Structure formats: structure tokens, C-alpha cells
Amino acid sequence: MRTGAGFFFTLLMAVGAWAAEPATQTPAPPTASTSALPRPAVDTYHIGVDDMVQVSVWHNPDLSVTVPVRPDGNISVPLIGDVRAGGRTPEDVAADVKQRLTTYLRDPQVAVILTELRSHEYLSRVRVTGAVHQPVSIPYRQGMTVLDAVLAAGGTTEFANGDRTSLYRRQDGGGVQPYDIKLDRIMKKGELQSNIPVQPGDIITVPERAF
User: Fold this and answer.
1) Same domain, 181 and 142
2) In a shared domain, residues 111 and 161
3) What is the DSSP string of the chain?
4) Are residues 48 and 101 in the same domain?
5) Which residue of 19, 40, 56, 109 shows the fewest CB atoms closer than 10 Å?
6) pLDDT bracket for residue 171 (50, 70, 90)
7) What global pTM score does this model have?
8) % of the chain exceeding 70 in pLDDT
């Protein structure tokens, strides 16, 4: 009996000592750094005169409109009248419309989408050059990714070195920031980590393989 009690006491002591030790945390698996990834275009694009803007108010189709930005920088929205859009982001305009609609609606849900970028005809284009079937300069569209742009250029040629593709983007300070694009992995393996959203003015260059 003593032997059993002693064994039980020793076991309790061992368990207590184990519990008293600081828990060893399993480190989180490494994740790809996002610091080098560009921000989506909708975060930085500022609406200009003649851009087409779609204002959608959830469950209120009569208040939803698609209108151009007038020369004075305003758009007209039913019920609330003129709203300043020029020089602002879609998110800013949506927040303004929502705030003004709260006078008439309870918790309105508002989305503002750019359907056509007319104010910066060439500044807003995306260009694809190099080893593609048809080098192109295409109008930027909201939600466009690297893959969308390359497909618009007819895809890559048999000589393309897709995983050495580069995207070049102008920076606010005047410089140009390159980003590495693994195009072969995107197109052939479905690895979309580098299939990043493009921004107006981006240039995508697909080099040829060295033989």
C-alpha cells in the first residue's frame, strides 16, 4: 500500500513539475512578406473629371446611379443632390454618400465603383511588353490583375521566361519600384501569390529565355 501511495505521490510531483514549466509555443509557420507587394489600385486612385462612377445603395435601386464626373468635380445622387467626387477616392465618396443618406435611411450600405477611367486616358493604362504574343496598352479596369493583363496581350510566347517577369510601378517620390512576378507559376501551376492587382500606369515586362 505504501509503495502504491509513494508511486502516486511521485507521479503527482512529476506532473506538477511539468505543468510549472513554461509552455513551449510552437512557432507560427513562416508567411510570405507582404511589405514588397503593391497596394490595390482602389486605395490610391483619385477620381477625375469625366470618369464614370457607379453609386450603389443596397436595397435601394432608385438611389443607385451610374454617372460621369462633371467638369466641376461633382456627381449627382438622387435624394441628396451633388456630391464632390473629383480628387477623392471611391471609398471617400462612398463614406460621404452614406453619411448624407443617414438623414433619410437607416444604416445605408453604399458602394462606389469606377466603371470607366476617362480622366487619365494614358496615365491610367496598363502596358504589357516583351515575350507576349501581342504587346498591348490597355485601359485599367478595377480588379485587374497581372494575369488579366498578360492574357489581354495574348499570353506568353514559347520563348518567354515567365518566372522572371517584372512589374514596374511609379512611386509618389518620382522613382520606379520593380516587383518580381512568377508568371509561369501563375499560369501553369495556379500559384497566385504574385498575381497581384495592377495599378494605372503599371508596366509588365516578360523577358525571353537565354539560350
Assistant:
1) yes
2) no
3) -HHHHHHHHHHHHHHHHHHHSPP-PPPPPP----TTSPPPGGGT----TT-EEEEEETT-GGG-EEEEPPTTSEEEETTTEEEE-TTS-HHHHHHHHHHHHTTTSSS--EEEEEEE--TTTTTTEEEEEESBSS-EEEE--TT-BHHHHHHHTT-B-TTB-GGGEEEEEE-TTS-EEEEEE-HHHHHHH---TT-PBP-TT-EEEEPBPP-
4) yes
5) 19
6) confident
7) 0.50
8) 79
